[in-house]
């Protein structure tokens, strides 16, 4: 999960405080996405070898990761890791799928407000909702806790089953302003291959994201092959109660847990309970997760996806409002972490580019 | 997780509020365990058939459970459940291992206080510690939030790694006052077989316990074959920080989550994120877990272990201070839940009885 340069609102009654904190500078940036140029399609050779990481160039990142996996799965080798201990954790936003121009979960929240508006005529004249309905994000941000209110209202007041349905409906219909693709098509093909490759080598793959766990669960299994019970994320409080006589879990407008920065090792501990062997992130919001992973005994690997491709994706790091990466670039190499240069190490970005 | 008849202390700064609430009536009951009579050994016949549930008599409970498993795993059958959806959740105290005369985690807490006492000379004259050191549980209970203090002090102030080591050391050395066995030997042989049987049928087995998740993780994998990432339990707050320069998760004396009663569906949702297909419990603390499991669409099964064997284990239900079971007995059968009569349906209780 990415990190913002300056801390934003920390209003407590929002389901995804991390997201909000990270988005509060949006008012000052252009909310209209720049058009993504038509990607340069790279078709793998017809008679390609059985390379599980086909979309990766034979660069230093691929080499280091494969070497590590071979080392930790070679029986009787000095760095062999027992299958039960092979845990690989992945951030989501910016690591497994894109995160520009705004976190996709924020796009979902804005669309929810628009969908809910007919039942709330008062929103036409009440900020921050008025701003959302008029596409005026500056007005939203100018409202105290404006985005926090948007997140809370759009993410609560329903049961967990109802919320999952809303996410599914949105994912099947909404499209990204730049690529015009569904958001779950904007996952990174090289990372899909990495997930499959690691699982084939006995690694259990988990998501550890600052995003909301309930926003991810409905679509992540089909998209990444990661089941709901292997997703760690930020959480809203939920309450068990009978709703219309049916036992239900009702989502409350309060944050239960923020799975970002120093929260990531906590989330890993709460849900997984083992120190991971490998951790993949892309921003300083992942720093503590990589630190926690790689500071334990035994073979450990930290990997940072560095967004360097301004043509096929977005290029950003130290100065970005979303997915800021500075400390990771400064300290990562010294800590032995692998920095993936997206532009030079990835043959394609999205799965749909392989078809072109 | 068992339930007490009357709510006990709800002091917030304890790592396992559920345990404490459930134990607050201990002052009025005899803390000295009754000796367990030598168990009547039941040796399975030498040429036993390949029955995965060998320690179960061919009673109604075994029949109902096996019938359900066959039904949900028969391809193309009307009640077939896809492998990814086969989630079976188990309470721990009183369901997978024993819970008398006090929750084993409370025994651990009392032993921790004794081990820590040399560094705290003031405890000799300060309740509730004085009571623990003198074996005077009535004095502990007479102190406001006495047991809560014991739980908080015994369970915090160390890192998660240090705490896991303490649990391991205790489990390897401490013995139960009645059986003189290590606590992790007092698991139920028929339930071990049930876990193995379900896993062999594609069910993923989880623990969902009111006990502390960090108290379970160190020994559960070896004992039950359930990995740390499949354990849901009550949690203390932890904080990520450098301790002596080492990135650590430090345990705080505050409750983060109580996985009991209506908390169990919440815990299931937080960590697993799917509605279970099967749920096993033994007390009214498990009622909501069974209700949540069995009120969803599709084939679902709830199972209650009823402690009916005063000779080989303990017989208790409606009037028990620990593991109270009343609503489950009243409503369970009407809801289609299976009630396991331990005395009549289990050939042996503990694994060590099979050796005798």
Beta percentage of chain A is: 5-15%
Which CATH architecture of the domain at 60-101 and 187-355 in chain A?
A: 3-Layer(aba) Sandwich
- Uncertain parts of chain A: 1-41
Terminal residue distance of chain A? 30 Å
Shape field of chain A: globular
Q: How would you describe the overall organization of this protein?
A:
2 copies of one chain form a homodimer. The first copy, chain A, has 356 residues and is α/β, with parallel strands linked by helices. Chain A has a domain at 60-101 and 187-355: HAD superfamily/HAD-like (Rossmann fold, 3-Layer(aba) Sandwich). Helix content of chain A is 35%, strand content 15%. Chain A is built from 14 helices and 7 strands. The first copy, chain A, has helices spanning 17-23, 60-73, 104-116, 129-133, 137-142, 146-155, 160-173, 189-200, 213-224, 263-271, 287-294, 327-331, 342-345, 351-355; strands spanning 87-90, 204-212, 231-243, 246-257, 278-281, 301-306, 338-341. A 7-stranded mixed β-sheet of chain A has the order 4-3-2-1-5-6-7, with helices on both faces. In chain A, helix 9 links the parallel strand 2 (204-212) and strand 3 (231-243). In chain A, helix 3 packs across helix 6 (146-155) and helix 10 crosses helix 11. The longest helix of chain A has 14 residues, at 60-73. The radius of gyration of chain A is 20 Å and the shape is globular. Mean pLDDT of chain A is 89; it is low at 1-41. The A-B interface holds A 84, 87, 160, 204, 206, 213, 217, 221, 227-231, 235, 238-241, 246-247, 249, 256, 262-263, 265-266, 269-274, 288, 291-292, 295 and B 84, 87, 160, 204, 206, 213, 217, 221, 227-231, 235, 238-241, 246-247, 249, 256, 262-263, 265-266, 269-274, 288, 291-292, 295.
């Amino acid at each position: 999960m990415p990190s913002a340069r300056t801390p934003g609102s920390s209003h407590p009654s929002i389901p995804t405080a991390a997201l909000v904190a990270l988005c509060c500078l949006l008012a000052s940036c252009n909310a209209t996405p720049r058009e993504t140029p038509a990607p340069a399609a790279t078709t793998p050779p017809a008679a390609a070898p059985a390379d599980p990481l086909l979309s990766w160039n034979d660069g230093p990142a691929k080499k280091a990761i494969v070497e590590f996996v071979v080392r930790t799965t070679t029986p009787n080798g000095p760095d062999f890791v027992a299958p039960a201990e092979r845990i690989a954790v992945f951030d989501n936003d910016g690591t497994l799928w894109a995160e520009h121009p705004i976190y996709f979960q924020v796009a979902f929240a804005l669309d929810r407000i628009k969908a809910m508006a007919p039942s709330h005529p008062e929103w036409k004249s009440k900020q921050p909702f008025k701003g959302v309905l008029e596409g005026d994000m500056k007005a939203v941000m100018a409202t105290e806790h404006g985005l926090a209110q948007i997140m809370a209202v759009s993410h609560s007041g329903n049961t967990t089953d109802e919320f999952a349905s809303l996410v599914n409906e949105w994912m099947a219909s909404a499209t990204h302003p730049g690529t015009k693709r569904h958001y779950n098509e904007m996952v990174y093909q090289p990372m899909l291959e990495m997930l499959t490759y690691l699982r084939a080598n006995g690694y259990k793959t988990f998501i550890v994201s600052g995003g909301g766990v309930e926003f991810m669960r409905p679509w992540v299994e089909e998209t990444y092959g990661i089941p709901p019970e292997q997703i760690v994320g930020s959480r809203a409080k939920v309450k068990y109660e009978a709703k219309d006589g049916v036992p239900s879990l009702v989502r409350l407008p309060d944050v239960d847990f923020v799975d970002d920065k120093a929260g990531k090792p906590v989330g890993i501990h709460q849900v997984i309970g083992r120190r991971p062997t490998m951790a993949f992130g892309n921003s300083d919001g992942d720093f503590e997760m990589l630190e926690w992973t790689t500071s334990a005994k035994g073979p450990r690997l930290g990997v940072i996806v560095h967004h360097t491709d301004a043509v096929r994706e977005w290029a950003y790091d130290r100065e970005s409002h979303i997915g800021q990466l500075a400390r990771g670039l400064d300290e990562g190499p010294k800590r032995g972490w692998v920095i993936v240069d997206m532009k030079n190490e990835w043959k394609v970005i999205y799965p749909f580019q392989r078809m072109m």
